[in-house]
Amino acid sequence: MYWNLNSSDYETAKYGRRVYEALIRAGKRGVKIRIAQDGASNLSENEESAYLAREGLAEVREINVTRLIGSGIIHTKFILSDIATLYVGSANMDWKSLSEVKELGVVIEECPCVASDLYKIFAAYWKLGENGSVIPDKWPISYRTPFNFTTMAHMKLDGEPAEYFISSSPGPFNPKGREHDLTAIQKIIKSARKSVCISVMDYIPATLYMKNGNRFWPEIDDALRDAAYRGVHVRMLISHWDHSRKEMLPFLKSLQTITDGLPRYNGTEHGQIQVKIFTVPANEQQKKIPFTRVNHAKYMVTENIAYIGTSNWSGDYFISTAGVGMVVRQDAATKRLQSAFDRDWNSEYAKDI
């Protein structure tokens, strides 16, 4: 999304410098580095990627989502190495993401099947970063994927069989076959029979950044209410920090309130929605660092599916913002992600609303 790795303002910035220095070393030893980044968000001068380009260490393209579809940014965060190893997650190319912000991502090593599918998304970004680019009426076949919620791909994850697919938004960026990130989330929730656990920084059933006025956007909200009505236990862990929107809390309380009105099954069992607010602690020194000390993760886990994404959960992120989601069906993967959620849910940093 933006670059802020090469800082020396704070002691913990050293972790970002290590990543940046590794990129420079890779470029100098002849590794081909290509960077597709947002071109209109004004969040950063992106001086670091500009330096890499000037020194011939990387090729950089900027995607102006607003020019292409009217609004939006590139909010995607993934890294591909040799079309074999990959990272997908919530962390920006920012030293704060490595030391002062709580993030969550997935690394898959030496798996060309997954990496080549993710590369198709990168290739689409790269195409859209060309001068004067337009979104094609029909994406070429080479950008298409056969893998989605209906037809998952197969791989070995930690030596055990797993199914997966990669979702993406916004819709105009998606060639044929690619599951939209929103529909992936909705289908995962709909497929749950026992449990849905969600950890996201922001949750608001509305758009927030539309130029021509915002609107109510209940697509995920409705899916969660429907799941609870079916008897599913929904737990939501939402971040609280200095920049949280005050309107978020009433929407979350609205979700939680429906529990008492849900039907009972077998006389006593019924679904429910529970919401907690998660606050990352900060000492006096940490409080001086801007835009830090927040749970920035974006993931969901059910009894049989793990989802790790790059988007916050409000309408804009699925309508006009570029993001991806990694969906895995495997017992070991879901147990690992569930364990991470339960640790945070039961911690002293999570409080009832």
Short recap of the structure:
Residues 70-97, 291-317 form the PLD phosphodiesterase domain. This protein has 353 residues and is an alpha+beta fold.
Order of helices and strands: EHEHEHEEEHEHEEHEHEHEEEEEHEHE
Helix content: 25-40%
Rg measurement, Å = 20 Å
Categorize the overall geometry: globular
Per CATH, the class reads Alpha Beta
List the helices and strands and how they pair.
Elements lengths: L2 E2 L9 H15 L5 E5 L8 H8 L4 E5 L1 H5 L8 E4 L3 E5 L3 E2 H5 L5 E4 L3 H17 L24 E5 L2 E10 L11 H11 L3 E6 L18 H11 L3 E7 L8 H10 L6 E2 L3 E2 L1 E7 L19 E5 L3 E4 L6 H4 L3 E7 L1 H15 L4 E3 L1
Question: How would you explain this protein's 3D organization?
Answer:
InterPro entries: Diverse_PLD-related, PLDc_3, PLipase_D/transphosphatidylase. There is one protein chain. With 353 residues, this protein is α+β, with helices and mostly antiparallel strands. It has a single domain (3-352), classed as Endonuclease Chain A (Endonuclease, Chain A, 2-Layer Sandwich), CATH 3.30.870.10. It is built from ten helices and 18 strands. It has helices at 14-28, 47-54, 65-69, 95-99, 112-128, 181-191, 219-229, 248-257, 316-319, 331-345, and strands at residues 3-4, 34-38, 59-63, 78-81, 85-89, 93-94, 105-108, 153-157, 160-169, 195-200, 233-239, 264-265, 269-270, 272-278, 298-302, 306-309, 323-329, 350-352. The model has no long low-confidence stretch (mean pLDDT 96).
